[in-house]
């Protein structure tokens, strides 16, 4: 078994949501941690991953919006400070696979499938072995009890339901 620790300073956990039915708002989480274990580097079978996200670390580039997301209208970070992901299975090839698992947001756990691409390994100038992965999935925010919205005068709502999640993960092999 090869174990890796996610390097948050070289990783991104981002999201995109429709705004006002016409545009998109993007954001990320600045504080997260996690681990990846690989049983056999030639296949994803037996691989696992776990991550913890600090919900209050949301960053959309707009302080007022970020504070609203942290409030009881959305993430309710005082009550639900952490979100978690724990994988339950993998399928596919070494280079492209589906990582299935339990995602907990706002105290609600749902099964999600993350499409993952293995980007390879490299040794950095300090002798650390690194592995990189990119992933994406879509979730319904309503499935996690995140239902706040405002009706638009011209029809539709302010915040879309579908959230596109993107991962760019670089991890360091444990010694």
Which keywords apply here?
elongated; 57% strand; Lipocalin; mainly beta; 1 helix; 8-stranded antiparallel beta barrel
Summary?
The chain has a single domain (about 1-175), classed as Lipid/polyisoprenoid-binding, YceI-like (Lipocalin, Beta Barrel).
What's the SSE blueprint?
Layout: E1 2-6, E2 12-19, E3 23-29, E4 32-38, E5 48-54, E6 58-59, H1 63-70, E7 82-92, E8 96-105, E9 108-123, E10 129-140, E11 159-173
Molecular shape: elongated
What percentage of the residues does DSSP assign to strands (E)?
over 45%
What is the CA-CA span between the terminal residues? Answer: 12 Å
Q: What would you give as the CATH superfamily?
A: Lipid/polyisoprenoid-binding, YceI-like
Overview of the molecule:
The chain has 1 helix and 11 strands, in the order ββββββαβββββ. The chain is mainly β and 175 residues long. The chain has a single domain, classed as Beta Barrel (Lipocalin). The chain has an 8-stranded antiparallel beta barrel with strand order 1-4-5-7-8-9-10-11. A hairpin with a 5-residue loop joins β9 and β10. The longest helix is centred in the middle third of the chain and has 8 residues. 21% of the residues are buried. The model has no long low-confidence stretch (mean pLDDT 93).
